[in-house]
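Support request from a user on the community tier.

User writes: "When I paste my structure tokens into the form, the page sometimes reloads and wipes my input. The last time it worked, I copied everything first. Here is what I submitted, just in case something in the input itself triggers the reload:"
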């Protein structure tokens, strides 16, 4: 059994230093890895990223992350990612990584993802160039996730997890105003997950949403935004085939 700890939307700033570290230090007792589902900072500044990096440096379990929209706000996502990588965090965007957890190969595929909405109420690649690019960007994120999951399958991973910031399903948005669903996720992510296959999908972003959901193909989806789970992290158990 693989124990996956996950949390998103921790939104750390200079005054947050040390807030989560005591909980993270307990991870070896309850989890094999930690997934971070984006929005690790408040405004995406290097100063905030250094706080997050210090919180995660030297943890006794592997840490894998994707960035969120807040981590892009200062327009320095590359620097944010580099600071996290320097602390030992694997930051993914359209790619995957394989971890050895107790002799089991665990694959994590990640992308920030993007919006666009869900089947029946989604944006289309039509009209103004900006609208087309909005949808194309969301599609590129989803395509990157699908490709990464497929590559992990070829690497004989016993367990595969899809890690995103934006939601792949509307289920986990319940509680958010319906008017903003198109800005919280995209069905294209769920299509990618169902096409390539995964054992679990983890996301954040929807602070007022719901924890539990499922793709049309039957993949469990969990919204781990900290305002939803209301703790330092949740742990999910996956059985390796």
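"...and here is what came back when it finally went through:"
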């Amino acid at each position: 059994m693989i124990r996956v700890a996950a949390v998103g939307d921790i939104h750390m700033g200079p005054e947050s230093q040390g807030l989560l570290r005591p909980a993270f230090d307990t991870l070896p007792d309850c989890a094999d890895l930690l997934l971070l589902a984006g929005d690790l900072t408040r405004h995406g500044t290097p100063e905030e990223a250094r706080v997050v990096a210090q919180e995660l440096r030297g943890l006794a379990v592997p840490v894998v992350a994707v960035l969120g929209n807040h981590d892009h706000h200062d327009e320095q996502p590359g620097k944010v990612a580099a600071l996290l990588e320097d602390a030992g965090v694997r930051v993914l965007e359209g790619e995957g990584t394989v971890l050895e957890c107790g002799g089991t190969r665990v694959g994590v595929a990640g992308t920030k993802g993007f919006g666009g909405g869900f089947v029946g109420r989604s944006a289309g690649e039509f009209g103004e160039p900006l609208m087309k690019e909005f949808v194309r960007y969301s599609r590129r994120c989803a395509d990157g996730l699908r490709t990464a999951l497929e590559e992990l399958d070829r690497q004989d991973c016993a367990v595969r997890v899809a890690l995103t910031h934006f939601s792949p399903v509307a289920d986990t948005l319940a509680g958010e105003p319906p008017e903003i669903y198109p800005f919280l996720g995209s069905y294209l992510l769920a299509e990618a997950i169902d096409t390539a296959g995964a054992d679990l999908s983890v996301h954040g972003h929807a602070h007022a949403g719901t924890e539990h959901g499922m793709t049309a193909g039957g993949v469990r989806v969990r919204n781990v935004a900290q305002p939803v789970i209301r703790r330092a992290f949740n742990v999910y158990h996956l059985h390796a085939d």
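Agent notes: The reload is a front-end session timeout and is unrelated to the input. The helical segments are 21-24, 27-30, 46-56, 69-72, 77-86, 129-154, 187-196, 226-229. Residues 129-154 form the longest helix (26 residues). Escalated to web team.
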